[in-house]
Amino acid sequence: MSVNNTANWIYKKGEDDNIVLYSKISIYRNVDGIRFFHNMDKEDFKNTENILKSNIEKLNLNLSYKKLIELPSIDIRMLIENLTIPSNKNIVNASLFTNEDEDISLLINSNEHLEIQTISRGLELESCFNKAYEIESILDQQIDFAYDKKFGFLTSSPNIIGTAMMAEVCIAVPCLTWKTSDNIDYIISECNKKGLEVNVKNGLLNIRNNIMIGVTEKFILDTIIEKVKEISEKEKKIRNRIKKLDRVKAEDRIYRSNAILLSARSLKYRELINYSLWLRLGIYYEIIDNISLDTIYYMAFVGKNAHLKHLYEKSSYYRNVDEIRANVVRDILKQ
């Protein structure tokens, strides 16, 4: 972790990162001959830990190791907020390897025996896959992972059997959701036909593969990247159209968002994200020149609840986390 426990990867520029917030790959594996997670006993957890830990330590990736159960609960929540570990994980028997930037993490004994995750700012899905697959390939030479010739890699969760790989991209689409909500419905429908799951909330669009069996990793990557580029181009086209035909309304939203973030005394997280998306548009239009994308990424992560509570855990001045968030954002933007 770096500044105020945010992950370093958010400061590393990626392709098209004004619109594509991040790309993430998760590869799930289980050790052959050991029961799946929900049927494991103490001996199984111990054996899995020993096998995976000893081989991960040989990777020479300069990874730090921690038992999640030994961490304070607020540290766990910050790992979740940094997207280092998923929010739905069991931590009682889990351990975690991460590198300094937290763009590589290996989670042991949490729903699956092993989850290899790589994450990057911008549209860097292939790069994330290459890093994750390289790690998996080295481990696969030393460990027998549960595999069936017909079904592929076997997992405790039936919906990820097959490639046992989840690819996810998060995209900022404030103009598409503002001006063409019917276009969003069409995008969702077209993605569903390709076996992709799409969620849209607060101007952010998350897209990931919903099918892992009967397809290859390359097919998953190619399909998502194609759709992400298509969505990104649609967002850019409507941004440019708005700039020509409805510039005043767009600039009004941009400058209002900036003013609110600079003066708000109470701020919900969804409000922070919504206003930040308009600041991104201001940077895209080159009318906001005193705020960088790095700053917007930083606000989005340090503005989450656990990070704020960690910053102000000994303060009694603020009554709730929304007041803390508003104060932190004001301070960041005034620097």
From TrEMBL:
GO CC, one annotated term: extracellular space
Matching PROSITE patterns: PHOSPHAGEN_KINASE_C
Repeat is among the record's keywords: no
Gene Ontology biological-process entries: phosphocreatine biosynthetic process
Alphabetized Pfam families for the sequence: ATP-gua_Ptrans
Domain Phosphagen kinase C-terminal: 19-238
Annotated residues for binding of ATP: 22-26, 166-170, 194-199
InterPro entries: ATP-guanido_PTrfase, ATP-guanido_PTrfase_cat, Gln_synth/guanido_kin_cat_dom
Protein's recorded name: Guanido phosphotransferase protein
Source species of the chain: Brachyspira hampsonii 30446
